[in-house]
Amino acid sequence: RKCDRLIYLSEEMKKEATFEYELEDTRSEIAYPFITIDDFTCKGRLDKYFDSKSYNLVYSGALGEKQNPRGIYEIANQIVNLNSDVRFLFFSRGPDYEKLKKLNSNEQIIFNDLVEPESLGELLARSDIQIVPQARGTSKGSLPSKVPNILSSGSMIFAITDENSELQELLSKQQGCVVSNSWDTQKNVDLLSSLVKQSPKKYDRSDNLDLYQRDFLAKVISNMIKKN
What we know:
Elements: E1 6-8, H1 11-20, E2 28-30, E3 55-60, H2 69-82, E4 86-91, H3 95-103, E5 109-112, H4 120-126, E6 129-133, H5 147-153, E7 156-160, H6 166-171, E8 177-180, H7 185-196, H8 214-227
Parallel strand pairs: 1-2, 3-4, 3-6, 4-5, 6-7, 7-8
């Protein structure tokens, strides 16, 4: 309440905090996480991870309670068992990651450590589908900061999120984004199966990413200063 101005990373965060702390709405602005990668060229650094003959489904980044790790794994296990040319790759670390890795006995589900920062652009570009999951009821405080980079890479996104969440609203405005509002394993496997039957495709979203540019945050801050 002592702040002159507040910047939130999503509309849902703003609404929740404004209600919870009884704040004046006029003190708040929104600046979405911005694109931090400008090079998505494939330089061969990740050749050992990706098989060009397979359809590569990828989960990358933090893996914890808000991502429903066990739910992702159940989807991964079923989708690769149904599709012999599909591989599911995890790039993560941490306790939940280690539990899944120990549990796994499926050769088409592959666990890898996080890649070096300079290889992140290549990782996103080489992903045929990037999986973006939000555990049920968590959308208000967990807009994934990696989404702008995935959008910029051109890779398809398969998101699991609450119905009418902000993530769903943002992805609905972009090409090549499929959203599920259910954690029912069979429903998600059916959706993914229909996607992997199609040839992998990249999407040029460059004309629709203004919200996620660094200069957008600069403009928000500049306007705040002027208002003061």
